[in-house]
Amino acid sequence: MKSALMEILACPACKSKLNLESPARSGDDVVSGTLRCTKCGEAYPIKDGIPNLLPPEYRDRPASSLPGAH
User: Fold this and answer.
1) Are 35 and 52 in contact (CB under 8 A)?
2) What are the phi and psi torsion angles at 69 (to 5°)?
3) What pTM was computed for the model?
4) What are phi and psi for residue 55, nearest 5 degrees?
5) Residue 64 · residue 35 · CB < 8 Å
6) Best label site of 8, 11, 12, 47, fewest CB within 10 Å?
7) In what order do the strands lie in the sheet with 50-51?
8) Cross-strand partners of 50
9) Cα–Cα distance between 55 and 57 in angstroms, integer?
10) Residue 70: pLDDT over 80
């Protein structure tokens, strides 16, 4: 994830600002860490440079079982 994305990302749950916690970086890329909402406190993991902004109840489910999947 490019560090510049922090300017446009918002919490999917409440639309508030996200803070980056415990980032591991490679140049300008964030490779791992946590995005935490400043309002509701929800945490979203970053793994292998990809932020997982799914609600917690959907994070560990296969994509085929998510709502709207065909």
Assistant:
1) no
2) -75, 145
3) 0.83
4) -60, 150
5) no
6) 8
7) 18-26, 29-37, 43-47, 50-51
8) 47
9) 6
10) no
Checking 50-56 for CB contacts under 8 A at 24+ apart, the result is 50/1, 51/1, 51/5, 51/9, 53/9, 53/12, 54/12, 55/12, 55/13
Q: Quickly tell me which residue has 């860490």 as its tokens.
A: 33
Q: Which CATH architecture has domain 3-51?
A: Single Sheet (2.20)
Give 19's Cβ-side CA count (13 Å radius): 9
The residue type at 4:
A
Burial of residue 32, with CB atoms counted within 10 A of its CB: 0-12 exposed, 13-18 middle, 19 or more buried: middle
**Which tokens go with 52?**
């997982």
DSSP 5: G
Q: What is the pLDDT of residues 9-68, one digit of tens each?
A: 999 999 999 999 999 999 999 999 999 999 999 999 999 999 999 988 888 777 676 667
